[in-house]
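Progress note, sequence design subtask.
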């Protein structure tokens, strides 16, 4: 137990709900934004590609945690629910990598024969994008989603550690680290080690899942 008599294991188990929910919702937000912008940039190219890439490079140049802090503070006056603010702040920092990967895939697939055939049949650009090209790049999208899930957990933990995440008494692994950091050089160092170990194992798990999916979905690599 901690200094207030609260059970550490129970708080860790309740805190995992926050991490998983933030990861799931923020990744969903990032996928919607990233796929949409990446598809537009890769399919139409030209000035649309240049404009979207300029926005991507601006977001890419800002550290993820710093950007999440800025979005969290900016949305504070508009949204009262702290959990919803974390969803939005983390989600808006995760879409850049998805957009870059989707753009690269679209740049290569738009030159394939099946796209030329769809254009010759008079299909609309929206149908070609969402029904012909997008289903062929689901593998890389799933892999980057797993990677973003792990990154979202780290960002949420960082926000909670500095006091901008889930507010007490609701438990969060980041806030638990901040609360127990003073015990790290005492005989009760486990108070800080347990939430840190939980963050490490969960992030490692999603990275391993992403690597496994990448190998499983890499058909060309298997043929080689």
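Output:
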């Amino acid at each position: 137990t901690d200094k207030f008599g609260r059970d550490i294991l129970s708080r860790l188990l309740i805190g995992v709900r926050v991490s998983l929910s933030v990861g799931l919702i923020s990744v969903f937000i990032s996928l919607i934004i990233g796929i949409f912008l990446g598809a537009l940039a890769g399919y139409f190219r030209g000035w649309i590609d240049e404009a979207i890439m300029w926005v991507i490079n601006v977001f890419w140049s800002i550290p993820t945690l710093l950007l999440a802090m800025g979005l969290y503070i900016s949305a504070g006056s508009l949204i009262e629910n702290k959990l919803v603010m974390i969803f939005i702040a983390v989600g808006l920092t995760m879409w850049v990598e998805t957009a870059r990967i989707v753009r690269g895939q679209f740049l290569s697939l738009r030159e394939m024969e099946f796209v030329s055939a769809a254009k010759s049949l008079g299909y609309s650009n929206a149908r070609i994008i969402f029904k012909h090209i997008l289903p062929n790049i689901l593998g890389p999208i799933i892999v980057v989603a797993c990677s973003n899930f792990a990154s979202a957990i780290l960002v949420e933990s960082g926000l909670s550690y500095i006091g901008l995440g889930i507010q007490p008494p609701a438990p969060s692994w980041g806030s638990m680290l901040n609360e127990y950091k003073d015990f790290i050089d005492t005989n009760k160092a486990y108070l800080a080690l347990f939430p840190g170990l939980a963050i490490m194992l969960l992030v490692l798990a999603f990275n391993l899942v992403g690597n496994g999916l990448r190998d499983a979905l890499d058909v060309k690599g298997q043929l080689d």
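Residues 35 and 99 are 6 Å apart (CA to CA). Work on this subtask will continue into the next period as scheduled.
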